[in-house]
Each structure stands twice: as C-alpha cells, then as structure tokens.
Amino acid sequence: xxxxxxxxxxxxxxxxxxxxxxxxxxxxxxxxxxxxxxxxxxxxxxxxxxxxxxxxxxxxxxxxxxxxxxxxxxxxxxxxxxxxxxxxxxxxxxxxxxxxxxxxxxxxxxxxxxxxxxxxxxxxxxxxxxxxxxxxxxxxxxxxxxxxxxxxxxxxxxxxxxxxxxxxxxxxxxxxxxxxxxxxxxxxxxxxxxxxxxxxxxxxxxxxxxxxxxxxxxxxxxxxxxxxxxxxxxxxxxxxxxxxxxxxxxxxxxxxxxxxxxxxxxxxxxxxxxxxxxxxxxxxxxxxxxxxxxxxxxxxxxxxxxxxxxxxxxxxxxxxxxxxxxxxxxxxxxxxxxxxxxxxxxxxxxxxxxxxxxxxxxxxxxxxxxxxxxxxxxxxxxxxxxxxxxxxxxxxxxxxxxxxxxxxxxxxxxxxxxxxxxxxxxxxxxxxxxxxxxxxxxxxxxxxxxxxxxxxxxxxxxxxxxxxxxxxxxxxxxxxxxxxxxxxxxxxxxxxxxxxxxxxxxxxxxxxxxxxxxxxxxxxxxxxxxxxxxxxxxxxxxxxxxxxxxxxxxxxxxxxxxxxxxxxxxxxxxxxxxxxxxxxxxxxxxxxxxxxxxxxxxxxxxxxxxxxxxxxxxxxxxxxxxxxxxxxxxxxxxxx
Length: 640
Prior knowledge:
This protein has helices spanning 18-29, 34-38, 93-104, 122-128, 146-159, 175-183, 192-204, 219-223, 228-248, 253-257, 270-289, 319-334, 353-368, 383-405, 409-414, 417-434, 479-491, 505-520, 535-545, 556-570, 585-590, 616-621, 627-637, and strands spanning 40-41, 47-48, 83-90, 110-115, 138-143, 169-173, 211-217, 260-266, 303-307, 338-340, 496-501, 525-527, 549-553, 575-578. By secondary structure, it is α/β, with parallel strands linked by helices. The strands form 3 sheets. It has an 8-stranded parallel beta barrel with strand order 3-4-5-6-7-8-9-10, surrounded by 7 helices. Mean pLDDT is 90; it is low at 596-625.
C-alpha cells in the first residue's frame, strides 16, 4: 500500500531575516526617515514598531502560562464566558423593577441598579428586587448611599437564608477614586469613617465569596482624558491602597483582595485595550502575591469593563454603535468577568428601550454568532499584542512605583500629582482633536452634512463640565466641536459655503472634499460641486446659490490665475476663501487676497490641503492656531 508523504506548509520558501526585511523597507522609503514614517510614538510613553517577529518575544517572562494560571495574563479562568451587564437607573423602584425583569429576559445576566434617590428603604429594595431570583443573576448596586444600600441587601439575603455560594453581588463603594476625584477630599477625618463602614461590610460578607464590597472606578480616569497606561496604573495604585488599608485594619491579604472589584473603560484603541487588560491582570497578580497569600486565588483580578463615553459623539450618534462594538470586541477577546456596552445615546439623553436593546445585542451577537466566548485569549502568542502587553505593563509599573514613592495613591492624589497627569494627557488629546490629528467621526471629521440638532440635544449635553481644584470631571472629546455646531444650528441663520472647483480636477476634488468636511464640522451648510469648466461659470453658480462663503478649490499652479479672477468677479458679494497653502501666497496677498486670519468674517476659515487631510501647513500658516480656534473665531465675527 502506497504511503502519502506529508510536508510542512511553506517549507519551499526560504526564511527571510529581519535584516532583509529592513533593507526592503528602507528601499521603499526612498530616503524618508524610518523612525518618523513608520514608528508610532504612543502617548503611553513607548514606541510601537511597524512589525514584530518571533525574535521580539525573546525575554518576555510571562509567556508560556495558561489561562487560569498565575500570573493570569491569559485570563483568570480556563474559559471566556463573560457576563452581559446592563445598568438600570433607579428613580422609582417599581418602574426600575419592570425594566430589570424585561432585560433579564432579553439576555442580560449581570444587572446594575444605579440608585438616584437620597433615601432608600428596605421596602424600596424589596420592590426593586421583586420577582428577581438573586442566585440566578449577578447584581451590582451603585449611585446614592451605596454603603447604606449594602446594609439593606445583606440583611435581605440573610433574612431569606440564601446559600452563600449562590450570591453574586457587587457594591460600587469607592471613596479613593470616586469621592476623591469628584470632591478632592474624603468624607470625614481623612476617610476614617468611610473605611470603618467598608471594614464592617467586609466582616459581614466574610462567608459570601461572591460579594465584592469595593469597586475601583478606573473608568473615571479614562473618561477624564487619561492615557491607557495612566488609567491602569492609577487603578492599580488605588486598589493597592485599599489592600493596605484593609490589612492595617486587621484583615488578611486573602480577605482584602477578594472584596475588590475593578471597573475599566475600554476605548477604541483596539489592540492597546486588549493588551491593557492582559497587563493589568499580570500586574495585580504580582502586587497581591507580594503579600504572600496562602494560595494564588486572591491574586486574580476581578474586572468589569464598560465601553468608553469619552469618544462618544452627540452628533451622528449612531456611529457610537460602531465604537461600542469594536470596544466590546477588545474586552471580550482580552477576557473580563463582565462587560457593559454603553448605549449609543447616553451622550445626550437617558438611554431608552431601543438603545439599551442595541447595546446588549452587541454582546449577544459576539457570543452567539461570533462565538467569542468559545475562545480563551485568542491574542496569546501574537508578536504584536504580546509586545504591547509587555510595554504597557512596564510603563504602568513605572508609574505605579512612582505613586508608591510619593506615599501611595491617596498621598499622590492629594498632592495633585494624579490630576496634573490626567489633565496634561487630556489637553494633549484635546489639541489632537482640535487639529484633527485624532479623528472623532461625525464631530471633527466626516460629519453628516444634512444633520441638524434635534430638541433632545441640549446645551448642557455639549458643555464640558468644569473640574475645579484637585478634581477630575469626565467629559467627551467632541464637546468643543459640538458646542460650536449646536450654536450655529440654534441660531437659525444656516450659513452656506460654496465649493468653486476649477483647474486641475484631481486637486480641485481633493481640496473640495477636505473643505466640505472642514466647514460642515462647524454646522455650516456646504454646497459641493464636481467641477466648473470656467471661472465665470463657477462664480455665476456661486452667486446664484446665495452662499455667504465661496471656497476656491484648485491646485497651487492654478491659484495664481484663478484666485484673482474669482475675487474680481465675486466682489464683495461673498467671503472669498482659498483652500490650501499655495506657494503663490505672497503674490495673492499683494493683490488683496488675504490667506490667513484676517478681520473679514469667516475668511479665517482657510483649509490647508495638499493631500487629504493635510494639517501641518495650515498650522504653520496660522502660527499653530488650531482648526477649532479658527472656526470659533470666524463664527464669532460673523455673528453666529
């Protein structure tokens, strides 16, 4: 009987060394700077190479461990069955109960009750939990007077004699992060009263392994504008502070660690977020391990993830569905205990039945159609993600140690160190958004041209909260653009910008596209045009449109002749804007065509675009003035 010869795939291809790859890349760059063109200098403090190979895994000490095995890089469990989490706002216990029962029958198995009223009784709790079988679902309590609510919940489960092993309840008690970031100080006597209450709850829930008393609200840092490394390091530092305080009060490391839950925001930085969660588990495991627990079980990081609110937009809000989906993918691939997809309309109104349904269906789809829950740490072994995990872990550990050297999280926070770091990172992000180096679809790039704000979008929804003193206030990155656009929408004036495309067709269309996006971001209605065969034809159409602004879109070579002719035919009947930063600027300015911030209303809105999008020349032209500042200045001068 003949035997079949088996060969390994691709053995006919010779191996290619890194040196050979580098030679090809340098040749393709044609003399361009390798580091500038291909190396990503992240805000997190490390660089990302354009590619990684097996040799880049050498020296990574955490490789080789399995999911459920210390240091838990690949997961704290041997499976990836996360819980689908959704928040119900509790204004009326009876109404909230009806909502809860509905979503529990629609795929949710982890529910959070965010209590709004300042007074909440045992009767209110019974009404809220009516017909909800506590052992069948994980329940989280947050909002007002959470410690008081915890007392009521513990009394209820003891009265009903529920088996301790079947109770899975979390309380969002977090004086170190929530209270410090919002108020800048503890409740009283440097938090002594708060921690006495926490210690009392830890004692009362000692036999309930499924009850977590403390939730480290790491999403606050991220939604206030921090980097991924900062959000992780600050969360770990706060968690460590809780450990130390509880052990100082007589608890063992096991008792303290098992009562702490982490909540982390997941941004649209897809691979970095996967790496962050993996790095976080590894670092927390080593932090707890340093206190010599009898077993490794307390070293497991109990992580809840929630998709970001920082990058949500109030304009073109359906894009938030896409953001939530990719963010949920990052969390589910990385492995979390529970996950909440933020409803797409939370940026401007309370989530409704439709938005909550879409949010939970994202996770149901990832589970039941994409089968993400059937694979444990699919990113494991990836040259890129393993290196990202290592880089994030190293940078977060450096920052964690710096905080410890300052006396720990509380001392570092009270000194202003943490707020200063987050605000500096937020300012850098704000600048990138204003200059469109960082894109928020629908806000600072590719807006919906026909969209006009509805009644549901209020000024409060687009106004950035002020963080006074040593506090942090979560905000959304698109708020500055949205506030400006809402002002135009509410003005009722609806200014128009007409694209006069002429000369070189390719360049005219590129600059018209850039200019349309630019003006539409400010709420200005754009009138785009494919191409005009003559300047006269274009000016005639522009005047007939009654547009307040006429944008000449052509190539640099065409501007020397086209711009003066448009100016002559247009006269003072509209504001003339030249799209780009042409080499003939001095000649045009000599003829009275100003390119740059001048007194004439809205002429400040010059669009720089040698290629789409091109910002550098515009910034150089305006002395580093941001796109956002130019738009705001122009609108103000025009009376909008």
